[in-house]
Automatic annotation (TrEMBL):
Residues 39-295 form the PhoD-like phosphatase metallophosphatase domain. Residues 1-20 form the signal peptide. This is PhoD-like phosphatase metallophosphatase domain-containing protein. The keyword Cell membrane does not apply. It holds the Pfam family PhoD. CDD domains: MPP_PhoD. The chain crosses the membrane at residues 426-446. Keywords: Membrane, Signal, Transmembrane, Transmembrane helix.
């Protein structure tokens, strides 16, 4: 009898132990599932319809990354050339953008979070993110903006950051995440390009000292197969170099020394598998900077912008093609031009999101990144074998032809001036023709009226 009980007891213990092992196994596999689908996006007007969430949910991402302008928090006044409050022109007397109050910001976040599509995504995917100017609180703002402390709290509330998270105590919303089991790890580093940023034309700092120290530690830390660096503003493409003096945009390119520092840090960290994702500009594009002497392997920057905001939406539909023509006319050195693009310019000016798919099952492991339209169809895309993103100094993996390589290693500012300012020349040319036309017409009208008037007098 005693032996039976002992045996039974023994089996019972064994059973419990087996259960416990199973539990632990499940927990580790629960904690570190293989990540193979990541979506990202930026620029979502909380008050506008947001049909794109449906396609994002259909992509079934395990992680969704916000890249800024997650809400439009600041208040935008209309363009006004005349009147009491003039927001444009040489007589401008009030700023076009003003910060909203804390209550207004809270309300806007509430509307964004309550969106039915986004709510569904939050249930299915882990949502992480950083911010850009409009959710930071003011268009084009940097470190001088005083509402940043309050707004950091609101932004972290929106992302459900735990109350005791160190991210709530630091100056800025930068953060890093590591997903996946050993051997299949994806690190996501999210930068804060606002909290510490010096004025736009200062060529000063974007990240500030504390964030640089942190970033260096993150890049030099444990290796991962893939490292995605999320920046609200574009890292590679320097569109301002070819759209100026007509208009300028924010980008790392506007801070050349800071950008070099970033490339050098990546190179010196000897970290493989790094690429950038970005937002902000209201169109999608994929850029590649390929100077073996600068970084050791090609750097990619996949821009998706925006979820609701898009350059082709700001002008009436029949004229939308003009945006495409302008994009095509803007010379580019970094942009990836491929026959697979929807448009010849390889930019995409309608609403879009970014879709990253990692195929861990092939050798070499391959990352497919697409900028997808509102229906989930790709508008521009790239396939990057991880073997291409290895700092081993060998060139035989390179997928580009020599001429292409040369282009991707040229800065926009080094283009011949006649090419670089093509858009501005055309613009001013059309303006001149228009002006001439108006002058001739006015002159003819005066002449005609004089003749008629003169005739009347004599009659
Ligand atoms: C957001 O959408 C609303 C409603 O369509 C519109 O009135 C508002 O101007 C938009 N804001 C921005 C920044 O586009
Ligand atoms: C939240 O969304 C639901 C429907 O999606 C709507 O009925 C409700 O009024 C919204 N609440 C607020 C406070 O916006
Ligand atoms: C980007 O363009 C701006 C404006 O032309 C220029 O001042 C800056 O030096 C450029 N940056 C780089 C890295 O080429
Ligand atoms: C890398 O090479 C390109 C072209 O060969 C050159 O223009 C550039 O200055 C070089 N950069 C560095 C950091 O040596």
């Amino acid at each position: 009898m005693a032996t039976t009980i002992t045996t039974l007891f023994f089996f019972f213990i064994l059973f419990i132990a087996a259960l416990a092992v199973k539990e632990v196994e499940q927990q580790t596999s629960l904690e570190q599932p293989i990540i193979s689908r990541i979506a990202f996006g930026s620029c979502a007007n909380q008050s506008a319809p947001q049909p794109i969430w449906k396609s994002i949910i259909d992509f079934n991402p395990q992680v969704f990354i916000w890249l800024g302008d997650n809400i439009y928090g600041d208040i935008r006044r209309p363009y006004k050339l005349f009147g009491k409050e003039r927001t444009i022109g040489p007589w401008k007397n009030v700023p076009r953008f003003v910060p909203a109050s804390e209550t207004e910001m809270q309300l806007k976040y509430h509307i964004a979070k309550n969106n039915s599509g986004y709510s569904l995504l939050r249930k299915k995917s882990q949502v992480i993110g950083t911010w850009d100017d409009h959710d930071y609180g003011l268009n084009d703002a940097g470190k001088e903006f005083s509402d940043k402390i309050v707004n950091q709290k609101l932004m972290l509330d929106f992302l459900d950051e735990p109350q005791d998270s160190p991210r709530r105590k630091q100056a800025g919303v930068y953060a890093s995440y590591t997903f996946g089991p050993k051997g299949k790890q994806v690190k996501v580093i999210l930068l804060d390009t606002r909290y510490h940023r010096d004025p736009l034309s200062s060529d000063g700092s974007i990240l500030g000292d504390s964030q640089w120290t942190w970033l260096k530690k993150e890049l030099n830390g444990p290796k991962t197969e893939i490292t995605i660096i999320g920046s609200s503003i574009q890292v590679l493409s320097n569109l301002s170099a070819t759209t100026g003096p007509l208009f300028y945009m924010e980008s790392w390119g506007r801070f050349p020394r800071e950008r070099d520092r970033l490339f050098k840090l990546i190179a010196s960290s000897k970290r493989n598998g790094v690429f950038f994702i970005s937002g902000d500009v209201h169109f999608g594009e994929i850029a590649r900077y390929d100077c073996a002497n600068a970084t050791g392997y090609p750097l990619y920057d996949i821009t998706s912008s925006g979820l609701t905001q898009a350059v082709e939406k700001v002008i009436p539909e029949p004229l939308a093609f003009l945006v495409e023509v302008a994009a095509w006319l803007t010379p580019t050195t970094m942009r990836l031009i491929s026959p697979n693009c929807r448009y010849r310019s390889c930019t995409y000016g309608q609403t879009n999101f970014g879709a990253i798919e990692i195929d861990w099952g092939v050798t070499p492991v391959t990352v497919k990144i697409e900028v997808r339209d509102v229906n989930g169809h790709p508008a521009t895309s790239v396939n990057i074998p991880l073997s291409e993103l290895q700092n081993q100094g060998s060139n035989d993996k390179n997928t580009l032809k020599v001429a292409e390589l040369q282009r991707h290693c040229t800065l926009e500012i080094n283009l011949p001036w006649i090419t670089r300012y093509r858009l501005a020349f055309l613009f001013y040319y059309f303006l001149a023709v228009l002006l001439l036309f108006v002058v001739v017409l006015t002159y003819a009208a005066i002449k005609l009226s004089r003749r008629i008037f003169g005739k009347c007098k004599f009659d």
